[in-house]
Design a protein that fits this description.
The complex is a heterodimer. Chain A is built from three helices and six strands; from the N terminus they run ββααββαββ. By secondary structure, chain A is α+β, with helices and mostly antiparallel strands. The chains are: A alpha+beta, B alpha+beta.
Chain lengths: 135, 254
């Protein structure tokens, strides 16, 4: 059976499930991802509404992109056009958050590179990730 | 006379004098091996088990094969006491998640001790109440709290029983205990790792900051712990004070 991998886009740099899950086909992968999405959302729908769950094949080729706002049961009473606008707004919020997260990483890297070039101590890792990324 | 237990369980630790001698005379030491099923739902209870170390999860399964842990028992509790007292069948599966040591007593001997000794009977009732409190809080937790908070709560519960910041549970085992997909646990573990709460390793979870883990957990952990401390406090006044010290929190943490 093919292996499908998953990535949570929660407004940071993304969190991957590298191990993946063996499933019969893409339809099952989509159904599985929807269940995972609902499990991640349950109990704090409002805070997770902007998240996405991406589904990949074994070679990390993206197959599905699932916006949580589309799974959110608390939005079910909304009219379709209003729901579509909520999904669109959530998408913008997530993109903004990812841009901010990415800018912070670049800033930390720049500070570390400047400090290193001056022979000064610098932050080598931040929460387990190298501050200066490999080229 | 049966072999003396190698370490002590909270139940036996709460006894002294002739009561302890009576209980010990019925105990046999044995090893808790990983994945051993000590009791199976619907089957008669043959032994009451007193863990000295390790962790046993009492789990309920659905017909589809999915399930969730409702109660965790380590050296702080006993397994099968309630059913043995009632001569009833097991209400859930009892499966070893972390190996360790334990003692066991036949259900008949346990019933005999309860019938003969009021103080042992009262102590057993307290342990049953503590387990009931944990099960009731788990019901609320499963229904109302986000999976991230629930994972943090279980990790705190496991750490309390194992006494180590290195929690020897895989993400698959955690998923099984919580009744969610393994991928869900992996993704939440990644978030908690990024937040500096824990460090996921192959085969175990390393708690980096217990303080942060408590902050990310739901209020269920504090509720159960405070109730249990109050339950085993020496006097009723202290017990009530300990319970009242915990104010139910209306918030649901994300």
């Amino acid at each position: 059976m093919p292996v499908y991998k998953f990535e949570l886009r929660d407004g940071t740099t993304g969190i991957r499930d590298d191990l993946g899950v063996s499933l019969p086909d893409r339809e099952h992968a989509l159904a599985y991802a929807r269940v995972v999405g609902r499990e991640l959302m349950r109990g704090h729908e409002q805070q997770t509404r902007c998240w996405h769950l991406n589904v990949y094949d074994e070679a990390w080729e993206k197959i599905f992109d699932i916006p949580f706002a589309g799974l959110d049961p608390t939005l079910d009473p909304l009219k379709p056009e209003l729901r579509a606008r909520v999904i669109e707004f959530c998408e913008r919020v997530r993109t903004l958050r990812e841009t901010i997260a990415s800018a912070k990483i670049t800033m930390r890297e720049s500070q570390a590179l400047v400090a290193r070039s001056r022979g000064r101590p610098y932050l080598a890792t931040y929460r387990g990730e190298r501050t200066i990324r490999a080229l | 006379m049966a072999a003396q237990p190698r370490a002590r369980n909270a139940f036996t630790s709460a006894l002294s004098g002739p009561e302890l001698t009576h209980v010990w005379s019925h105990l046999t030491a044995f090893d808790l091996r990983f994945d051993d099923c000590l009791h199976r739902v619907g089957n008669p209870i043959e032994h009451v088990i007193f863990p000295h170390s390790g962790l046993v999860a009492l789990t309920i399964s659905s017909r589809e094969g999915t399930g969730a842990a409702v109660i965790l028992v380590g050296p702080d509790g006993i397994i099968g006491g309630l059913e043995a007292a009632a001569s009833a069948c097991a209400t859930c599966d009892a499966r070893v998640h972390i190996p360790g040591e334990a003692s066991r007593m036949s259900a008949a001997a346990f019933r005999y001790l309860l019938d003969q000794n009021p103080s042992i009977r009262r102590l057993a009732a307290r342990f049953d109440t503590a387990m009931m409190a944990q099960a009731q809080q788990t019901a609320l937790c499963n229904a109302a709290h986000p999976v991230e908070a629930r994972i943090c709560r279980w990790l705190l519960e496991v750490q309390d029983r194992s006494g180590s910041s290195k929690v020897p549970l895989t993400q698959s085992m955690l998923a099984q205990m919580l009744g969610v997909r393994r991928t869900t646990v992996t993704l939440i573990a990644g978030r908690l790792e990024a937040a500096g709460v824990l460090d996921g390793r192959r085969g175990y979870v390393q708690i980096v900051s217990r303080e942060e883990l408590e902050r990310h957990s739901c209020e269920c952990y504090d509720q159960v712990r405070s109730y249990t401390v109050g339950l085993f406090a020496p006097s009723r006044s202290e017990s009530m004070a300990a319970i009242q010290a915990v104010k139910p929190s209306p918030r649901l943490r994300s």
